[in-house]
Amino acid sequence: MNMRAISPVIATVIIVSVAIAIAVAVAFWMTGITGLFTRYEKLEVISAYATKTDNNWNVVLIVENTGTSDATIDDIFINGKPLSAYGGNDPASPTEENEITLTLGDNILPQEGLSVPTGSKWTITIVVQANVGDTTFRSGQIIEVKLHTAAGNEYPKSVQLP
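-> structure tokens emitted (162 positions)
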């Protein structure tokens, strides 16, 4: 019988190539797993300002989601109190242009919240009256507007009423 084996050099090349192929496959798999667990939402308030109209102020927030996953704004706090604490219970309707106007004391966010997909912007206008329930607002006052998301994150911004 004339049996011949593989030379040690060829055997070493085969073993090294299989090891490299397995290492590359594991690296791609781990990258995919890491990508799934490192998705995050990040809302940035690009602009926040207030304008005066008669006895009201329009507080305008322009918000952009710069994170890697969609965000849902499920509540807005004014000076630490949720919108519903000011007596409103009528859900406001957003427009197709990613805009919503809320009147403090009348409106609340829709039950499903405001969905802010990655890379999109929303314009949120809050109409603040001089007297809302037991709270009085006046010119020169700084109010804190805090956006709360379904993921539990909060994004505060201070705005001075003109």
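The mean pLDDT is 90.
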